[in-house]
Every structure is written in C-alpha cells, then in structure tokens.
Amino acid sequence: MTPAPRPALGTIAGEAGALWYHVVGSGPDTVLVPLGSWLDPALAPLGDRHTVVFYDPRHRGQSHGLSDSTHATFEGDVADLEAMRRALGISRAAVIGYDYYAAVVSAWAARHPDVVSRLVLLSPIEPLDSLARAYNPPERLARLDTVAARALVKARAAGRDTTDLAGYCDAFWRVNARLFVGDTAQAAGIHAEWCRLANESPARVARAAGLALSSLGEGSDLGRMAEGVTAPTLVIQGRRDLVANPDGAREWARRIPGARVLTLTNVGHLPHLEAGPQVVEAIAEFLGGRFPPRATPP
After folding, report:
1. CA dist., res. 276 & res. 87, Å (int)
2. Average pLDDT taken over every residue of the chain
3. Which tens digit of pLDDT belongs to each residue from 266-290?
4. By the 8 A CB rule, do 46 and 22 touch?
5. DSSP string, 58-85
6. 259 pLDDT band (50/70/90 cuts)?
7. Can you list the domains of the chain with their CATH numbers?
8. Which of 7, 87, 194, 296 would be 200's cystine partner, CB 3.0–4.6 Å?
9. Whole-prediction pTM value?
10. Greatest Cα pair distance in the chain
C-alpha cells in the first residue's frame, strides 16, 4: 500500500477549488480524514502507526471559501474526497467521517468499495430526516445560559456574525459548548481553535452546510447512499449526544452489513475532544483489524 507522499502540508486542486491537507505519520496504511481543522489535533496520535491524511473539504477550514453557491453540494464533497485520494496517489485507505462528513465518506465508500479498507463514522448525522426532526431532547434548553444566549442573539442581529468572524465564533462556542458535550463540566475545556479560520465562522458553516444538504432534496435518505459499503464499519456515538440523534448511529449500523456501534458513556457530540484517548484507542484497534470489545451490533 502506497503511503501519502510528501510534502506533509499543502493543497490539491479539488473540483471547485484548492483543498488543504496535512499528512501525519508515515505508516504503511493510509487513513483519510475530512474536516482536519476540527479533527487533526485530537486524532493525530493515529499517525504513530498509520499515514493519516487530514484535509479540509470545500468551503471549510483552510480550503477555498464559498463564492459560488452552486458548488456547495453533497456530491461535490464526495467528489473532493476522491480527488484527494487520487491527487496523493493513495491506492487504498481507511476513512473517518465526523457528523455530516460521516454521510459523505459512507457515500464515497459505497461507490469505491475496491479502495476502502475500513470505515469509521464518528457522531454521524442522522441518515434519515425523520430521525433528525424527531429529536428534541428537553435537556438542550435546560443547559442553555439564557442571558448569554440572548446576548449572542443581539450580537448576531447587530451583524457581528459577519463583521467579526472570530469574535462571534468564540462567543458562539462559549454559549453552545454546553450543548455539544456530555458532561457540562467539560464545556469550559472546549477551545474552538477553528474559530481562527474564516470558513469556520458559524454563519459560513451554516450557509455551506445548508446548501449542501438542500442539494439532496427534501426528505433525503442519506443512509440509502451507503448501500454498497462492504468495508468493515465502526460507528462511534456519545450516549449523551444532544446534537445528533443517537438512534441515527444505530440506523447507520443497520444499513451497513456487519457494522458495529461503540457507545461512549457520558459523552456528547464531540467525542474526540471529550474522550480523546479513548476514541483514539478504539479507532486504532479497529484500524488494526479488530472491533473494540464494547462495540456491538445495532
């Protein structure tokens, strides 16, 4: 298996613009990880045994920004993953997809089964719109600091979300980190380093994501796009995820033959930040050829 070549840091030409990437490690097996701006620091230890290629998808992180709304599509994100693989000369790879990008890597893996060794879905977006719409845990509202939330709404109304990207992003995460973690005591430890990147401002992320999901049409079935996945698949979900419906993780595993679910206790939507060593250990074991002992069928 050919490891990703140097330089360890650079860009490639995606279908709609330049895509940033960062290679960690030089092991014999390659792992592709979209949304490196969020996942790179936490999952970098996987580079001890593997060649890990973190990259930012179109309109995210250090890749090109959104200038043409017609380029913000789900199919574009799938195509860019393949463009990254080809540009770096990767013959076969494992793939890790977080949140929305869990759906992207699943669709890609279904279309390219011959080049996928293993698949990890981390806190995946729900495969069905109905699962997302049905999920509204009361704890969400109970966790919010209403005074801080109102101040954030006022800042947005004043246009700070577009005129002060980094400042508003920091304020957004100070308010909303409590919704993304399983244990609120960990909220203060969530440092949104990605706020330094203009593409990661909440307004820009919301616009790009909204357009990409809209490109699929109403009532989309993301899980159907995973039909054809043959690679061993591990789904990792926090039991106290208030952002993505935990039933969605089990549904992904039901859709993909042989997939197993690892549920993490007292963890929310940011398992790589809340329980980093545990997540890295589980993924490393899986990439090494075995499901973690606590991973079970759906």
Report:
1. 30
2. 95
3. 999 999 999 999 999 999 999 999 9
4. no
5. TTSTTS-----GGG--HHHHHHHHHHHH
6. very high
7. 9-133+217-287 (3.40.50.1820), 140-213 (no CATH)
8. 194
9. 0.95
10. 54
283, two tokens: 């993924």
Beta bridge partners of 235: 121, 261
Is 180:139 a contact under the CB 8 Å cutoff? no
- Cα 121 to the chain's mean position, in Å? 8
Structural contact between residues 126 and 103, judged by C-beta atoms closer than 8 angstroms: no
* pLDDT tens figures, 137-161: 999 999 999 999 999 999 999 999 9
Place of tokens 């050919």: 2
**Spatial distance between the Cα atoms of 271 and 278, rounded to a whole number of angstroms:** 9
DSSP 17: S
